[in-house]
What does this fold into?
Amino acid sequence: MQLDQFTLRIKKAQQSLDTLQVKSNLFVSLRLLNVIAFLLSCYLYTKSPTSIFGPIAATLVLTFAIEVMLHQNIKNSIKMFQLKKKINQEYLNRIDDNWKKFDDTGQDLADLDHPYAFDLDIIGKSSLFQKISICKTFWGRKKLGELLLKTNKEGIEDRQKSVYELSKDLDFLVDLQIQLCDKKEVKKDPGKWLNIENILIHESKILNIMLKIVPITIIGLLFLGNVFLLYAIILIVINLGLCLIDKNRANVALLRNSQYQIEPYLKALSVVFEKEFKSPLLRKKSESASMAIKSLKELEKISILASLSTQPLFGLPLNGILMWDLWIVHLCKKWQDKHGKNLKESIYFLGELEALGSLATLSIIDKTIFPHVTNTNVINGQKLGHPLINARLRVCNSFYINDEILIITGSNMSGKTTFLRTIGINLVLSYAGAGTTAKAFCCGHFSIFTSMRTSDNLGEQTSSFHAEIKRIKIILDAIKAKQPLFFLIDEIFRGTNSKDRINGAIGVLKALKNYGAIGLITTHDLEMCKLEEIPGITNYHFEDFFDNQNMFFDYTLKPGISTKTNAKHLLEMIGVV
It folds into this structure.
């Protein structure tokens, strides 16, 4: 979708907001006039009790109540259009390269030892997750993290169809986000209140009979008064005691706490229920939405009723006379028997829908192509670009890897590392089911391992060289599993002397090749390029150019070995030499 289309959507939302704000201001004035008229009517009525000002005052009270309800509807509409404007602005920010200010970076979804998450900017600051995520719920974030951080080859085609469908229905994605946006409750793990489906509820036949007889008896005794009042008090004390010692007290507390968490999920599932999906995955999983909505509506009512007894002012008479908390437990048991186990699946599906909608973000804001994932050791990219680089600045490259290792040489800042990340991040998108920023992209299914951002760690007394050795060892251990493996290594062993670096790098490359791994490695050591004599190892390079002391790059991959270096020129530019 083009930038001007989002600008138009934002403009329309603002126009609706302006109209609603005028109506809201009008209702503020009407309510104020109503209050003044009510006070005046009351005053005049006190002066002349037989006049018509009494009925007028009563009518004004009713009118005020209607105005309050209508005004609240307008306020709700204002909030809805504010969120719609905000969400469309976020999509626009992604196009304008202003997405790096988004709060959610997904940093918490993987540890620092993950095989590729941080090297490829999948999560963390200025990451793929930060750019594309529209996830608001706990399970939505978890699911998106799972899709991006686990190269799951199962169901790729189904996810692609789902992502494609969602990318063509921005209105649905915006409506879904509106229901979940600015709701702190959905960020919490819903596991506790979802477990209401499975909690063990202790009931007895005697207690169930008492629930039907005792409250009526107490009310009758209170109504009769006199000596019967004492019996009523005794029964009230017994009821309070039963509520205090009941084994289900924790379950009642759980119901009370779930009230505000249920509402946004209920509204979001209602949006899902209105949508008729076409892709097989979404169509199949959305079938349970209808039952989940009914289930949540009933559970919400029970949780509201459960919350009434939290205040002592209401709790004592409710539990003492009506055995309120015990009734709540009884209603919860009936809810369990009626609705079975379908609720948790629907909440998980809502999270999966958010995750797939996040993957669709890239196709909404950029030109993408869905890749073809095969069972070969081939990676073929035509005009492949980096999705985190603005489309107007992005330089795309074409390449073909067929069961081989590429050695990439080139001067500083020429594009070597970015090219590695371009391939890696597009592979991650491919396995997740998203579109890739390419004219065409075909790839085998590999486990991805990288060694790119190694650094020292004083807390763990680890040097950058030692950290890199640990990453390389992880890669070498992984290839022994004899699973297809794709590696990306940037400037291997840069933390040691040139002799050890070259010898070590050659040994690593030979081991990787012998075990059947494919991948790319960058280096400044031209000595390593002699490995091209080994079948399946090929040299490519990037280069820089100088014009009147100015240095520039074309960031274009070329076959062969780099013959240039720019270190001396860079030092001259800053006045060191």
